[in-house]
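[job 4471] stage=fold_predict status=RUNNING
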Amino acid sequence: MNSKSKTVTYQDYLKIPELLRLQQPLSKEAGELAHDEVLFIITHQVYELWFKQILHELDFVLKLFQKESINERHMGIIVSRFERIIEIQKILIAQVAVLETMSPADFLEFRDLLAPASGFQSIQFRLLEIKMGLVKERRILFERQTFSSELRDEERAILEETEKDLSLFDGVNRWLERTPFLDFDGFSFWDSYKEALEENLDKQKQSLDSGHLSAEERERMEKNYESTRKNIEAIMDEEKHNEMVETGQRELSYRSLQAALLIFLYRDQPVLYLPYRLLTGLIDMDEYLTSWRYRHALMAHRMIGRKTGTGGSSGYSYLRATAERHKVFSDFTNLTTFFLPRSKLPTLPDDIQKALGFYYSQSKGKL
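[job 4471] inference complete, writing structure tokens
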């Protein structure tokens, strides 16, 4: 190290003086400081810093998904990045409780000064949504307009460029389509699983025909049977699946859905364990983001009731709707509809179990 170089200090490295000058309460500029505005500013600035870190992790993962194949070492890295994002999301949710130490009356002391600024205008959060895979067609309109209508031209341009890039959903979908174990040396996982599903469905039908059911029990079981039958028909028929994709009821390709189901069902096989953790990580990220949206909605309701948001949105109603509608990885969560007990799963041939016992890297394909 050059002895003439400047000694690094904590204050200089982290830019502490600059950081602490970034809190500029509008109420103070207006004449009298509203005490809780400082809390409001700091909490939202911290949110933006965590958004920056999440985007940093996502960008790293997206570069890996752009490759033609993902090796075992990269798979472990992706899972660790997801785990970090999930821990950050837990902090984001916890921060809502800090904001809720501010009473609605205290918020009103400076709320009107914020208009038309709104968290709705957070570019980093919009980038996060886009990079995860939320597409325009699935967004809830903001006062009958797209969210970008409230942004500056340069901000809009950034988001539009990002929408052209590979999203996490698209990367995972492509990765799953390359899964080699669906058809392996004459064994078809999908055909075997169809038979197991049909056999399970036949047993449900037989139980309906038994004469030991009360009218109430029979009605309940008939509804369950019909629901199961329709779900199984939808997953077995590729044409029906593609129709559901076209109407927005599903997002994954047919082969990707099959591969994901294989990974979930046979997750105990060594080579499928990391892919299983990757998929469950996506579900967790989706759930925590949904939980954060919902907590945000509840806080908005607590603070402003049914008033319009500072940015012109419908406030609580809009935020609550996005919590349910803006999910990205629902297809993976919904796969549990088609799960069978372990004891009912098709037994994998010995040679396939042997192949699944280590990282598969033969010429027939790579995960």
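[job 4471] summary: The chain has 18 helices and two strands.
[job 4471] exit 0
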